[in-house]
Amino acid sequence: MVKINSTKAKSLLMSVFRYAFLIGLIFTILYPQLNKVIIAFRSQADLVDSSIIFFPKHFSIASFQESAENLEYFPTLFRTILICTVSGILHVASCTLTAYSIAKFEFKLKKFIYALIILTFLVPPTLISLPLYTNFQNFDIFGIIEAITGSPLTLLDNPISIFLLYATANCLKSGLFIFLLIQFFKNMPRVLDEAAEVDGATNAQIFIKLALPAARTMLVTVFLFTFVWQWTDTYYTSMFFNEFTVMSSALMKSVSGSIERTFVESSQLSSAGSVLFVIPIIILYVICNKAFVQSIENSGIVG
Amino acid sequence: MKKLTLREASSSAKKKRFAYILLIPFLLGFLLFFARPLLLSLYYSFNSMNLSGAKIIYEYQGFDKYYQALFVNTDFRAELLSSLKQIVLNVPLIMFFSLFVATLLSKDFKGRNFTRVILFLPVIISTGVLLQVENADYLMAQGQAMISDTAIGLEEEAATYASSMGLKDLLLSIDLPAQVTDYMAEIIDNFYIVLTSSGVQITLLIAAWQSIPPSLYEASAIEGATAWEDFWKITIPMISPYIFVCTIYSIVDTFTSANNGLVTYIRDIANGQTMDYGLASAMSWIYFIMVSICLGLVALLFLRGRLVVYQER
Lengths: 303, 313
What we know:
Strand content of chain B: under 5%
Order of helices and strands of chain A: HHHHHHHHHHHHHHH
Structural class of chain B: mainly alpha
Radius of gyration of chain B: 26 Å
Number of strands of chain A: 0
Largest sheet of chain B: 2 strands, antiparallel
CATH superfamily of chain A: MetI-like
Oligomer: heterodimer
Strand content of chain A: under 5%
CATH class of chain A: Mainly Alpha
Helix content of chain B: over 70%
Shape of chain A: flat
CATH class of the largest domain in chain B: Mainly Alpha
Distance between the termini of chain A: 41 Å
Number of helices of chain A: 15
Helix content of chain A: over 70%
Radius of gyration of chain A: 25 Å
Number of strands of chain B: 2
Number of domains of chain B: 2
Number of helices of chain B: 13
Number of domains of chain A: 1
Distance between the termini of chain B: 33 Å
């Protein structure tokens, strides 16, 4: 009897500890974000009122209006959504092709190419960023374009530069996605492929009609991650885009462009800007959180 | 019989061809956007660049830029060391923390899914530009707090920065050596970074945990093992391959993060007033070599040290 009581007490203590700890963690993650929202809602008078700790006395959306103006919110929003969507689709296509080839077939250079994929993930981006920039300044494919048009193309300030990187799976995190997809395709039962082959299906048919539908959730995940990471990206946007603004570069500009304001004001503006910036991807995450979280589990690294 | 092997041979040739066709986009991109830039940056690092008219003249200089980066430049070595320190300090913390949280979340309880969704949130929002804006605000808040100590809500971030000072005093007052207190204070200062960079790892480890067959625990319960023994003798060996993968991921994530001071520093060298591409390239190469050594050591530790148990399938 005593023994039962002590295990009960133990499990109660455990769950109290667990909840206390996890609530603490959730708070630590959410607090800075909530804080931004609250700060952004403060009115001019509230900003310098030292009696206000958290909730503003007078709600005001002035800072949102101003920062929406700075960001040119809606045009920038649509442009960014378009760019992220195209990037996502291209990235899904290129990563899937590469991963399927490595996972399903045996050929001489397989191990070598696999090593190259891992290498693209391991090399620090700063190492290639500079030559990459000059590469797109005078873009050419082995001199072909110069032979046709007489001079190399300039692809700076042009989203095609980013699209090219995504379409060839040579972006910052491409190696990671290819790795996940390889694990997934490797775990797919071979019996189905063999059955289809006996029925006379070509390799392309097996890929399109069998493998792609099976990998549907993984493809959605690669799309979502690419979308979100391209949304917040500064590495490519600061390197390639100068005049051409997307959300992330607009936010950077609006934050660094507010030097002449006081600290409190500019901090409020950057809070409001961040909130406006993050709302679309938060909505996306709330709708698709299953696809984000579960797909990492189902990726096949595990099991 | 002979016909069949012929057919098999042609089908395998077809398969090979198909495999290479699928790889065309990646290989093309690799040559244009990875290999060529990589070799160019190596070339830059060994040459000095001079503008004469519209043309750039390259002059071979050997290891001059590397020497300059390591022994002439005053900041680089410090930045390199602090970046290394960040990896050495944060990666074990991230791993312990992820493992700990994964332990808490491995069993079902009310609100578990909600917690997982929130813990994964930083993977979405604590990246790229938001991290940079946060850092900019944080630096400003620190600077502001130094200038004036008026407590308005916006400076709470600066206040949290100072919060580890109180702990440090407390620990010093109970006669702990200064190194230990410094280390603990640093852990606390880094906690937010650790928390926000553990999302992927936690999710992976929970999944790994759940893929352990329950029969193993049942068997050990019959033998009378305690939960503590279960943890060390079953759980840890079973998930060790994923601990390895997570460690590698954490290291790569730490050194490519927008939080990384060295990355920003090298970018400033390349884009700043000096525009010294060669020096920036040389620094990047030194950094890359250092990171590779780190990764190599970790791989050696895990694989040769037999910390990873691979199951036979």
